[in-house]
Amino acid sequence: MATRNVGIRGLGSAVRAWVEAVAAPLAGPVSRRRHKAALAEQHRLHFALLCKAMDDPALASVLDTYETPVPPEKQRQYLFANALYVNALYYHRIGALTLAELHGHFRVMCQNPVFREYWAATGHHRKSLPDSSEEAGLGHVMDELIQELDDSDTDEWWVVGETPGDSP
Length: 168
Prior knowledge:
- There is one protein chain.
- The chain is built from 7 helices and no strands.
- By secondary structure, the chain is mostly helical.
- The protein has one domain (40-159).
- It is globular, with a radius of gyration of 22 Å.
- The protein has helices at 2-55, 57-60, 72-93, 99-109, 113-121, 123-126, 134-151.
């Protein structure tokens, strides 16, 4: 009887795998739409929470995880810088920006000294990300871009840094 149960369980697994394989192409577009809708909702929620924190210092204090004290006005600026950064990431994730276009947005963001302060102040946050994650990879792109801009001897900031995808 035990042998028979194993055979039936194996058949059930095979049928389940076949159904999933057949259904996957059909569910692809629906699944992608659901994923994009979930991303959009998460982005709206993130932005709403940041707006509340920017408007209320008591709520902003909950997000104060910096290694050194940050005055409330500076923290509001950091929260806004985070909103700009996350917005660019969101557009990339939904396919509205290519990696090269995102890199261009990063270049513009890096021209602002407050954004650079925010980026430096939150470096320890990014260390907790798994190196294999997309966000960690994009953080490294930003780090490299900032370093290249710092090392550059040109005032033409828009040509500094190798745009992802430009490599041979």
